[in-house]
Structures are given as structure tokens and as C-alpha cells.
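Continuing the series of single-chain predictions for the mutant panel. This is the parent chain; the variants come on the following pages.
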Amino acid sequence: MDFGLVLQTDPPADLLIERMVRAEGHGFTHGWTFDSAVLWQEPFVIHSRVLDRTERMVVGPMVTNPSTRSWEVTASTFATLNDMHGNRTVCGIGRGDSALRVAGRKPATLAQLSEAMTVIRDLAEGREARMGETGMRIPWVRGGSLPMWMGAYGPKALDMVGREADGFILQLADPYLTEWMVRAVRTAAEAAGRGPDAVRICVAAPAYVTDGSAEGLAHARKQCRWFGGWSATTSRTSWPGTATSPTWCPRSSPTT
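Parent structure:
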């Protein structure tokens, strides 16, 4: 089982980078950030600094989306980071919620997300991809690896994760729902001929450390509102004043 940490890209970026470095020193293998350009700072700029300051940590967004950046730009960004730092990125991606909601736009459809995952992964790994009627390839990319981990909740999205994604991102802490959703993904993977353990599982839950006052709790709930408005809690894996999501990423799917 691997452990990761998710941080908001609030300024100053140097503080986030230092926290990622500390996390690696304590055995965390994955460093994730939010990706909503209007709400927080640009994550991929910060990812480059995190990769430069760490040795083993795998970094990625939790999650990006198919709509705020063109797919070839997203692919080229990941391919550049991998070329510089040795294949230490993962593309967490979903339909888009906070990034699009604050801009008055609708999330992508599952069909658009499916196509985007294929195009981004193919381009980032050096293969030719088609966008509409146009075929393209990033000529300087030679191989490389970009796992696509999809965020999902509903039955259709969970089925798509099992059929198409390399990993499943679930930003939810309820044990019963987690068990049900993981089972749905594994069932879909098996039905697609991939095997029930073909998809890695990553479960994250929001936490925000406060002083416990009513004002502090109200502020914490506001900071966690993009996770569905769940009540904020304190956590020893969090740092004061930062919304975080402690995560576990098993090397194979859990048995329960």
C-alpha cells in the first residue's frame, strides 16, 4: 500500500513544495494537487518544482479535466515533466467540477472524457492520436509512461473506469460507499477482460486543521466545499491552515 498527500495550490508555492519534500521524507510516494485555475495557482508549474526537489515522489493533479486545457497541451506538459524527471507523473482526470463551475461552464461528458484520456495518454507516450479529423504526434516524445487515473462516482463513470482507466480516484471517506464503488470498478474491469486488479485504487478524503472554534469550522467547511461540503476534520497528516487529502494507493486492489 502506498500513501500520498493532496494539497491545494494556495500561495505561497514554496510552502507547498516544502511540504511535499517533507512528505517524501516520511515515506509518502505520491504528491497530488488540485487543478482549478480560477481558485488556486497553476499546478503544473509547481509540479516541476516538486519533481526537482524530490527523488522518488510521483506527482499529478487530483484532478484535471478535458476542458480547461487543450488535450495536446496537457499531453505535452506531462511528457515534458517525464522527460525532465524520469516518468514520475500520473494524470488524474475527471469530467471537471470546480474548475468549470466557477467559470460558468458545464463538465465534460463521459464520451469527451473517454476520448481525452486516450488522446492525452497516446500523445504523452509518443504515439499518434486523432483529434476529430486531425491525426497528430508529438515528434520529440520517445516512449515514456503516463498512467491515466480517473475520478468517478456514478455507475456509468465507475464502469468506464473499470474498462478504460489505469487507476480509480475516489474522493470519499465513507467505508460502505468506498467498498461498493471499488467493487463496481473491479467488476467492470473483469467484464472488459482486464482482470479485477487491473485498475489501481486511490481513496482520498478532505481534512482541514482548525482551532476547533465555530468560526474555524465554518472556514474549514468552506475550504472543503469542492468535495461536496463534507464536515472538516483535524488530521495528524495535515498541516495547519491547509486543505489536504491523505490518500492510500494500494499496489493492488483491496480485498474488502
